Amino acid sequence: MAISRDDLKTRIGQALGEAKADLVIKNTRFLNVVTGEIAEGDIAVCGEVIVGTYESYDGVEEIDGRGLTVVPGFIDTHLHCESTCVTPQEFDRCVLPRGTTTAICDPHEICNVLGEQGLRYFLDSAGGTVLDLFVQLSSCVPATELETSGARLEAPDLIRHMDHPRVLGLAEFMNFPGVFHKVDGVLDKLAAFDGRHIDGHAPLVSGKELNAYLSCGIRNCHETTSAAEAMEKLRKGMQVLIRDGSVSKDVHALAEVIGPETSPFLGFCTDDRNPLDIAEEGHMDHLIRSAIRLGAPVAHVYRAATWSAARGFRLYDRGLVAPGHRADLVLLDDLEECAVNRVIRNGRLVGPHSFGGRPAVTPVGLDSVKLEPVAEEDFAVPAGGSVQSVIGLEPGKILTEHRRIEVPAVGGRMVADPSRDLLKICVLARHGSNRNIGRGFVQGFGFPEGALASSVGHDSHNICVVGASDADMRIAVNRLIELQGGFVAVREGKVVGELALPLAGLMSLEPFETVEAKLRSLRAAVRAMGCPLAEPFLQLAFLPLPVIPHLKITDRGMVDVDRFELIAA
User: Which residues form the Adenine deaminase C-terminal domain (predicted)?
Assistant: First the structure.
């Protein structure tokens, strides 16, 4: 929105001290992420903008900042609100009080289920959040042709929304094999957004292939999992977004990369983080705290989480405690521990009152699970060769191993062997266009009996189920159909835990506090089954993602991601 001459006069007058500032944080210290110094002095705010630092000011409203340190508001550079299991409005309530004042989301989870209807839901929602929520246009719907998605978004569908005020550019370009193979539809999307921001998604891509990927105008990557991989990407001008979500936890591997030379080209993101983890560990504050504890320089961690993140997305109005910048500020009790005391968003102190009066957004996709009830026979795997490709799950990672393991057969069918942590995994198409079922085996879930089922299965979000017996798998899937999406745990023929996610099979309609409590109960039930994983449902949700190496499964079968092809049954 353009500023008026009178507004500028008001700003100038308050900056000069000719009139009281609207808000002043008095007697405080603040982190200057340009110089790295801890400065002292008042911070004066006029409306939504900082107008004074390093000097003394009087304010109409004053906050005593004694004992506090002020830093810029945190920026989550890449996330899927759907993966928090709550609506964007509840995500807003959940993370803003923790210091996240700007978030950049990719709604490709809901878009893979509902297409443009899901995109419009997010654009409408972003217009009513208190934090600044931007929406990148989902580039890969479907993510690949190796799965059945609920919708398609081609270049013309995205172009229609590219000038929306909540849109910054094109979301994570996951189909890097399509780039290297010069697929027309892939190149059409890149060409349409040439000169605009394009997010990357390039796990383990290096050498000439990384050069080719970057030559298309792709600017960043949040899928970096080692310091060596990060340094190659940084050397080639790619912004590295350090991720720590509920499953993928990369801060430990990448903290050593953060330094004075690299921090201007870094950022932090959560990607996929649920309300239970946010309650127990934090959101962006958790990433900042973790990096500092691992030895990364304090000032450079905060620079990456604020100014560098903003610059990488051309958000030049935020990220500094400095005149002329947006008054998105976090007041900390402890800088190194990132202990949030209070948050100021757009020049206003955040509290429970901040979230009243937001426009309601009508839920969509409340009937998106179109799968008919299943029988035990649907999970049967005919006996083949004794040695089979088996997914090797790695805790805390979405990368998987491609293992070759002997799978037992009984009565002409291959079966699970819980004694070797070998469970059956199936993906069932749920969008109504076919009745595909992909069948295979996985190691890493660790429970000796029972089943887990989820309608969250990146990125096409078909129903995923893993189990020690076909009987329990049937019960879990059928209960999920009744709930119209969510998470279900079954043991000894009984449902022992569940969370309903009826909005597109991805999000709850309940407050985040309720979802947190139900996730806590569900986690306890799954641990009682003997599963050692911290986030078993989220680990399950990434096993159908055929753009992450090395072995995955979709409704069409097992996928060798390195070769980007289905494995013959």
Answer: 398-565
